[in-house]
Amino acid sequence: MPEKVLDIDDLHMIYAGGVHAVRGISFEVNQGESVAIIGSSGSGKSTVLRCINRLIEPTEGKIHLKGEQINTPHTDVNDLRSRIGMVFQSFELFAHLKVLENVTLGLRHVRKMSKGEAEEVALSVLERVDLLDRIGAYPGNLSGGQKQRVAIARALAMHPEVLLFDEPTSALDPELIGSVLETIKGLADEGMTMVIVTHEISFARDVADRIIYMDEGVVAEEGPSSIINNPKSERLKKFLSSLHEDEVPEQIHQDEGDSTV
Amino acid sequence: MYEADSRLSEPMALRVNRVIAIAAVILLVTVVSPSQAKEFQSSWEVVESGTSEDLLTAAIFDGQVWAFGTGGVMLNSSNNGVTWEIADSPTNTDIHHSDSGFGSLLIAGDSGLMLFKQDSDSEWLDISLPLGSEVNGVSLIGGHNVVAVGDQGTIWKYDTGVWEVISLTIESDLMAVSFVDEELGIVVGSGGTILFSDDGGENWDYREAPEGASEAVIISVEFYSPTRIYAITDDGRILISMNNVVSGTEVGYLWELVDFERHYPPGSNEYLLEPATLDVELTTVEVVTTSKLLMTGVDGYLSMSVNGGTIVSQQINPLGNDTSFNDIVMLTGFIGVAVGDGGAILWTEEAGADDQVGFVVPEYNNFGVFVDETKAMFLAGFIATVKIVAFGIILGFFLGITLAMCKTSPTSLRYIVERFDHRHVRAMGIPILAGGLYQFYSGIPGTRDLGLQGIEYIFLPVGAPESFARILLGIALTFVGVLFLSNDGKFAKIKIKSFTLNPWRVRPLNTIATVYTDFFRNTPLIVQFLFIHFGVRLGALIQGPGLDIFSFENLEQNHNFLTDIFATYDHSEGNYGTLIGGMLYDSAFISAICALGFNSGAYQCETIRGAIQAIPSAQMEAGRSIGLTYLQTMRRVIMPQAIRICIPPMGNEMVNLVLNSSLAMIIGYAELTRQGKLIVASTFQYAYAWGMVLISYFVVTWTLALFLRWMEEKTRIPGLGMTGGD
């Protein structure tokens, strides 16, 4: 029986403006599992992710990290966040810090490591994302793919118990996506527990152990990655078919055996 | 690759511009700087005397100047000492002493010679002492009587045509005598002897010489006025006695040695600091005004002091150091004559002041002279300005950052209470409400007592600051208390028709910061200066307790460079110290820093807040997501970027602060503008003075601007903001 890392129970989020973005979401993430959350924009995917590390406070519901409820007033939110890595859509690197300093910042000021120790850890994670040659560069001088890999390294350096990806490739040019997806895939293979919000359906299918399809704030369909190929609900079918031609639909048609290509 | 290329082009051009600008300034400075060669011209002119006898004494009598010397030589001048002629002399004995006054002229010489004259045309009357009497000094008392002094404590008195010896049991030699009127007189001599008479020389009292002069030979004395006596010793010291109004001590009782501060050699601005003596054998002192003296000495010594002897300036002696001067007389405050060996006579109409070291008004319309005379004041003002500017910037910056953080912090009431159970929040509301109502009502009586009416109530904060604060606090706490009591965990808005209000979004820190910045940005800085310095007396309020902490007693053994920032004492005195510097020295300085800092803080706050808001909020999320606290993220992530963004507007703000520092003159702080005003007051050179003040300010602001531009370039990072270059 794999250990439950994340357990989300009946999560609701109503924004200040009255928008009911998440309407009772429940799911679990097990140790070493990677879960992809897909869905059209506005379906509440990112909100769920931000609720998990409490960048926004859920209105209702419970979130457990390794069995411990983390959305209580008594939770040490800083400690919690240091245990949950987050990678943003637009990278959000610290522009005034060099690559190495971006990665060591959390280690030094949250983990209270010495400069030497922090750099040792940082170099090892930067090696993993294949950026050892750029450690002295400022983020402004990196390409988009490199930036996102630095962001991944920054999150990884903290040795998080779970890693959250908020549409990690949406802001990248198609030719730069490859290196980032490769990196994430590598992490999945190494058994990193991950929750990935993505638009890359094929990537989700390749990497994720499980896929959650969200629509209008609820889980419309959940299952192993094969549900991409065999959607059961009408909503997922509709969503998949609405996606751009060059993405998944062709594969769906292929799999369904009535390819028109 | 492309980074290297882009670094070459634009900043290179910038740098070349700057090099040219700096080179131009250096060129200008070097061309301008060869200062005019200083001409130290003696104000004494050599006058032809027509004799080669040593001239030993001089006197003014009946509109004429007289000089007497060896071989009985007598000279007189009827045009204030410009030309001299030899007068018929009834004697060939050396004449050593003379005195005039009360309508008479008296001379005394070797072997008891004593001649007397009552107008310039009349003959000399011989009233000589018995042969062999050696007179060291004479003084007229009234028109007919004379007191003469000699060795071994001898005093002769000439009264109603008869000489009388007044025997004193004193061993010391008496050197000089001086009477100020017909009764008060003084005799001085060797061994620090000072004798005083208040009955026209009949009876003499012994007076104690000041400590350190009890062995000295007091060589010359002048009873200048009924309240002031000057005397000199032959080893170059000055004694002074004055009426002490406070203790009721009359002149002649208390004597002190003048502490020399500076002794200028002839024709130089390089002075000896605090010499123990003038290191010369003085011969005579001439007191011109209450604090202006001229002194002569051997080897051509000729000097003047305009402040009672503490600063003594030697005069250039056009005859060189071989000629010793024996006497000096002043006809007016400015015109005078010095006589010396070999028939030497010097004449001046400038009170013996050399150019440069004297008080004669220099020609300020000569710019070189003007600069030379005023540069010390300009420099002092410049340093004073830089000091308040530097401390003001530091204070303003810290205030600005703090206020900006207050304004941008997410500390709404909701944020504060959210983590608590709503029942607990309600419970907290009760004491808060009670406290609020108590504060409110306790503030009311003080307000009523003022008897204000209607619109006059806007001045309430001035009339009853405590009551006003209580009422404000009361209202705020009542509001918070009611809000807490109504809390049901939903943080609902209040809706009145179409008007909605969310009381939970009130941010107390933001409110306080907003009130502060609004207040300081909406009132004139000059009034803030006046209110802070004279109204609140903030400078004095800080200075008092500050000096208690940094007192001489506390610092005596362990003062160091850090404590010197606050207070420095003159430790030379030993038992007690005199405050001579440090931040706590001047309350106007403290007030000026506070006023400038408070005001600038309000503006800098808005600048910094703008820069903080320009940083994408996702940067905060990114920082928080790796576990940094809010303050850590502010410090490590947001601020470093925000400060870079706000360097250009901050430069504006700092330049403004420099320019605003000129308003500190209104509270009496001696900064650049005030110094300019003082210089104008003493030189009347408006264009020069204000022009130099302008340039001095420009130097400060331009340096600051260059520094900030350098900072901007230095701290520039790729990808943050548009820079035009890179």
Itemize the secondary structure elements and their pairings.
The complex is a heterodimer of chains A (261) and B (726).
Chain A: E1 4-14, E2 20-30, E3 34-38, H1 45-52, E4 60-65, E5 68-69, H2 77-83, E6 84-87, H3 99-109, H4 115-128, H5 144-157, E7 162-166, H6 174-189, E8 194-197, H7 201-207, E9 210-215, E10 218-224, H8 234-242, H9 249-256
Parallel strand pairs in A: 3-8, 3-9, 6-7, 7-8
Antiparallel strand pairs in A: 1-2, 1-4, 4-5, 9-10
Chain B: H1 2-32, E1 45-47, E2 55-61, E3 64-69, E4 74-77, E5 85-86, E6 95-101, E7 104-109, E8 114-117, E9 125-126, E10 135-141, E11 145-150, E12 154-159, E13 162-167, E14 174-179, E15 185-189, E16 193-197, E17 205-207, E18 218-225, E19 228-233, E20 238-242, E21 256-257, E22 262-264, E23 272-273, E24 282-287, E25 293-297, E26 302-305, E27 311-314, E28 325-330, E29 336-340, E30 344-348, H2 367-408, H3 413-417, H4 422-448, H5 460-463, H6 465-485, E31 494-496, E32 499-501, H7 508-521, H8 525-535, H9 538-549, H10 552-555, H11 561-566, E33 568-570, E34 578-581, H12 587-614, H13 617-625, H14 630-645, H15 647-660, H16 672-683, H17 686-715
Parallel strand pairs in B: 22-27
Antiparallel strand pairs in B: 1-30, 2-3, 3-4, 4-5, 6-7, 7-8, 8-9, 10-11, 11-12, 12-13, 14-15, 15-16, 16-17, 18-19, 19-20, 20-21, 22-23, 24-25, 25-26, 26-27, 28-29, 29-30, 31-32, 33-34
Can you walk through the features of this model?
The complex is a heterodimer of chains A (261) and B (726). With 261 residues, chain A is α/β, with parallel strands linked by helices. Chain A has a single domain (4-256), classed as P-loop containing nucleotide triphosphate hydrolases (Rossmann fold, 3-Layer(aba) Sandwich), CATH 3.40.50.300. Chain A contains nine helices and ten strands. In chain A, the strands form two sheets. In chain A, strands 6-7-8-3-9-10 form a six-stranded mixed beta sheet, sandwiched between helices. A four-stranded antiparallel beta sheet of chain A has the order 2-1-4-5, with helices on one face. The longest helix of chain A has 16 residues, at 174-189. Chain A is globular, with a radius of gyration of 19 Å. Chain A starts with a strand and ends in a 5-residue tail after the last helix. Chain B has 17 helices and 34 strands. Chain B has two domains: 45-261, Kelch-type beta propeller (Neuraminidase, 6 Propeller), CATH 2.120.10; 380-540 and 582-715, MetI-like fold, CATH 1.10.3720.10. In chain B, a hairpin with a 7-residue loop joins strand 16 and strand 17 (205-207). The two termini of chain B are 13 Å apart.
